[in-house]
Amino acid sequence: IGEIVRSPDPFYGYAPDVLVSVFGMFTHVTSDDPGHVDPYTGADVVYDGVDKLKYGTEITYGVLPWLAFSGRYDRVIPNTDDDSQTLAALSPRVIFRTDWNSQDQVTLQYTHWWYGSGVVARTGTRDVPDPSVEPDPNTISLTASMWW
Asked: Residues 78, 131, 48, 79: what is their CA dihedral angle, to the nearest 10 degrees?
């Protein structure tokens, strides 16, 4: 947005700015695997002909050289023929960095998840589906990253 607002003058990123992104991905699976019945849930697991979809948006507002606020929404549909497997996430975050265009940041993020009734948690050392476990709808994370 900063580049658009300041046009025709060049914008080098050393000022408050809003970054907006929209993303999406569609996948169609073709598989020779005939599928099977899940021994833990009793559900039919089919791979061939499954359509998958993911989409969302992210908005980041750089307020100060060392501070930005961001929010992201994701929706994941692992099987477009089964709405019960859908999940969504909303993630507000606070980003701390050393300068406007720094290549490092520390991010504090909260995510709230909405799960469809067919989303099953995987547990145990064998990582097996366990329908008796309710997936946690809340996540707090603190991450640090550098890039060059």
From this structure: -20
Q: Tokens 């020779």 label which residue?
A: 32
State the Cα–Cα distance between residues 38 and 115, nearest whole angstrom: 20
Terminal CA-CA length for the chain: 24
Q: Which residues contact 53 (CB under 8 A, 6 or more apart)?
A: 24, 25, 26, 27, 75, 76, 77, 80
Tell which phi-psi region holds residue 3, choosing left (phi > 0), alpha (psi between -120 and 50) or beta. Answer: alpha
pTM, two decimals, is 0.83
pLDDT tens string 55-99 = 999 999 999 999 999 999 999 999 999 899 899 999 999 999 999
